[in-house]
Amino acid sequence: EHANSVRTCTISGDPHYYTFDNSVFHFQGTCTYVLSEQCQNGLPYYRVEGKNEHRGSTHVSWTRLVKVFVHDETIELVKGRYGEAKVTRSGFSVIVSTDFGLMVSYDMYSYVRISVPYTYQNSTCGLCGNFDNHPGNDFRTRQGEVVSSDVDFANSWKAPGDDEPGCEVQCSGLACAGCTAAQTAVYRNSAHCGILENSTGPFAGCHQQLAPGSFVDSCVYDLCVGGGYQPILCQALNVYSSQCQQNGIQPQSWRRPGFCEIPCPANSHYEAQGTGCPSTCVNPNSTDNCPLPDQESCVCNSGYLLSGRVCVPHADCGCSFEGRYYYSGETVILDTDYGSFATCWIRGPGSYHTFDGVMYQYPGACRLTLAKVMGSSDHSHFMITVEKVPQGPQGFSNVLKFEAEGTQVAIEMASSSTVKVSDRNHFLQIKYITYNEV
């Protein structure tokens, strides 16, 4: 019955851990820890590590870095920096997914979700627990001992290689927040964290599926640490809202002007139920058959596509080369030994071509730097490029350009087999010269 299902572990706030088996604990160490790992033979191996940091208070910590080890590769997701390889954006998070069902998402601030398929039941270990449907034994140390102390449990999963001094935990559990009775009363009211458990509030439809009690406790904790700072409240409410959406339940609108509203960048707008697979320059049809649930996000306006993190017109999309996407104008070194460069360059009307010859329906063209003298070499500097440039409303022509010693030569190889050579001061036409197309 669980063949197509997944179980999810989440880490949020400063940090609150919700294991695969729904145990909840609060741990403040700032070392690097194994969040989840495949611990039994016979299944594809993975390991997810998390590195915490202090933000304003040395009593609590927040997730700063997530590392995913899979298929002999390491993918790092760092707070405020968006990853590249094997990483996609969904809503306001970045997601690493694998062919065997592991999915790791990070909002690049403090909210981490790790989902594994049911084939990994009884086969995981780390701070997310062992996924055996028995929360009572989740505090199993690396040595295999079940302990009662969340600190002893979490410390045992410190990852090797983190030598940061003083990263050990300084306090334990909810007591780290140091909430007073007055603070607790204020932050539990319906204007703050209490909105989560309000039976007539925007989250009421989710209560039966996901009990809000522990989320309220975590929210109050975070506000005590943050002195009631509203963005922290918004983050805590968003964690519960996201969990509801992951369970197929859409909360009522809870963001409003002046309260947790989300400003969106140019050429995009906010949607509470945006697609989990936004249309991109690489895959304009990604919304079709999207496997991810709808979630709040900034969605590109009609006529625009995501190019990295920016919504651009179709004509301003970049190039795909050997499985990687490059922005329009971006240059990449293809061969460090011989100094070969490739530049993604889009201009003018016409068809769209990538570096490796794939044609898209968008306007633009690409330029390839064939050879160039690098850096401050003592050799005479030159650069040879080949361009595919628009010619008329539909066509293209190939142009080979040579630059050296202040001279620029362009050889246009037109469809009539006419080759034109020009520099700054001369124009020379040579008819019917046979050439090999570059």
TrEMBL record:
Pfam families: C8 (PF08742), TIL (PF01826), VWD (PF00094)
Primary location recorded for the protein, binned into one broad class: membrane
Swiss-Prot/TrEMBL keywords: Disulfide bond, Membrane, Signal
Keyword Signal: yes
SMART domains xref list: C8 (SM00832), VWD (SM00216)
A GO cellular component entry from the record: membrane
Domain VWFD: 7-168, 342-438
Subcellular location: Membrane
InterPro entries, per the entry: Alpha-tectorin, Ser_inhib-like_sf, TIL_dom, VWF/SSPO/ZAN-like_Cys-rich_dom, VWF_type-D
Domain of life: Eukaryota
Protein name: VWFD domain-containing protein
The species this protein was found in: Poecilia latipinna (sailfin molly)
Native organism taxonomy: Eukaryota, Metazoa, Chordata, Craniata, Vertebrata
